[in-house]
């Protein structure tokens, strides 16, 4: 069975705990758990990847089955969308799951919000993934962020960005 046949990607939302844990396992900053339910509920579209061998059928994960990957779009659903949370569990990385999730999200935008400006922020290891799907550097614009929680984390991110320049 090929890697693409080993996994099923479904439209849906992971549980808040699975979302939190998957971000952490994938090396992404885990958000405050209390903020996750509202965030997930406000997704424009959310995709979740599962191992096929644990599925009850083609569209139903097993009762104790956890997600092995995920990705979301947030935004106004028409003109401005942000691709976020492209995360794959380390034991399932390098099997095309992240690529399949990004492709499905791009296809969703093309069908449902063809005029949307879709933006994202990519960690350094993932920066080679997104140009394959039409994403371009925003230069001469500059990406920025603001995060009220965790000023120390914000300072660490800024220091890391300065070291890479």
UniProtKB/TrEMBL annotation:
Q: Which GO terms describe its molecular function?
A: acyltransferase activity, transferring groups other than amino-acyl groups
**N-acetyltransferase domain: from which residue to which, for each copy?**
23-152
Q: Which SUPFAM superfamilies match?
A: Acyl-CoA N-acyltransferases (Nat)
Which CDD domains does the protein's record reference?
Answer: NAT_SF
Annotated InterPro entries: Acetyltransferase_Butenolide, Acyl_CoA_acyltransferase, GNAT_dom
Which Gene3D superfamilies has this protein been placed in? 3.40.630.30
Q: Which Pfam families match?
A: Acetyltransf_7
Superkingdom classification of source: Eukaryota
Protein's recorded name: N-acetyltransferase domain-containing protein
Which organism encodes this protein?
Neocucurbitaria cava
Which lineage ranks, top first, belong to the organism behind this chain?
A: Eukaryota, Fungi, Dikarya, Ascomycota, Pezizomycotina
